Amino acid sequence: MPSLPTPEALERHPHLAEPCPEGWVRVDFHSHTMWSGDSTTTPEELHECVTASGIDVLCITDHNAIKGAVELADELPCRVVVGEELKTHAGEIIGLFLRERIPQGIPPLEAALDIRDQGGIVYVPHPFDPMRNNLRLDVLDELVASDLVDGIEVLNGKTSLKSLNQKAVTYAAKHDLAIGAGSDAHVAEAIGAVYLEMPDFDSPEDFLSSMRQGRPVGHYYDPPRRWRPRIVPSTADGFL
User: Fold this and answer.
1) Measured between alpha carbons, how far is 73 from 97 in angstroms, rounded to an integer?
2) Do the Cβ atoms of 57 and 25 come closer than 8 Å?
3) Pairing between strand 151-156 and 121-124?
C-alpha cells in the first residue's frame, strides 16, 4: 500500500497534498532508471522517491529496454507497469504492458503493431515537444488514422511550455484518444511531479478505459541531476 507523501516530496510537488478520489489511483506514465543510459537513478533511489511521493502505479519506460522494469516490478512499494520508450526514425513511441523488448530503430508502424501484438498499449509521449524527440506529426497522423494509437501524453513533466501540453490535449480530444501524464523522470526526485489520476484497474483493457476518465495533475519539474556518490551496476544486458 503506497505511503502518504513525505514533507520533502510535498515541498517539491505541493499537488501531492490533494487526495485522490476514492477508488482512483495516481499513475505516472513515463519514468526512467539507470537502464535508460541517460539516467543514473538506482533502484534504491527510485524506491526512496516512490515511497516519498505515494505514487500508486509507476510505468517504467526506459529507453529501448525493459529489463529494469521487469527487475523492479516486485521491488518497489507501488505497482509497476513494464514499458519501453523506443526510438524510431521518426521519433519516440512508448509501449506499455510489454512482455518483450522491442528493438530500437524499427519503423513506427512496425513498433505500434509489435506493441499491439503483445497485448500492450501504444502511447505517444511528448507529442509536440521538439526538445523531447517527439514523434513526427505526419507519422502520428498516419498511425492515428490507422487506429494504431491508444493514447497520448497531455502533460509531460519536462515540457516547459504549457502551450505544447495544451496542443496535446486538443489533439487527443479531436481524435478521441485516451490521455496520459508522466513525470518523464530522469532523476528520482521527479517522481510525483506529474501523474494521471484515474479509476483503479486490473488489466490493460481496464487501464485504457480508465485513461479516458483520467485527470492530469502536476507541474514542470526538470532539475539538474544532483551529484551524489553512487554505484551504478552495469546494465550492458539491459536491452534483453
Assistant:
1) 12
2) yes
3) parallel
Q: In what order do the strands lie in the sheet with 215-218?
A: 178-182, 151-156, 121-124, 91-96, 79-88, 57-60, 24-31, 194-199, 215-218
Please count the structural domains in the chain.
Answer: 1
Residues 208-221 pLDDT 10s: 999 999 999 999 99
Q: What is the CATH number of the domain that holds 49?
A: 3.20.20.140
Regarding pTM above 0.85, the answer is yes
Q: How far does the chain reach from its first CA to its final CA, in angstroms?
A: 30
For cell 491508444, the residue is: 150
Type of residue at 22: E
For 177, the grid coordinates are 484518444
Residue with cell 521538439: 130
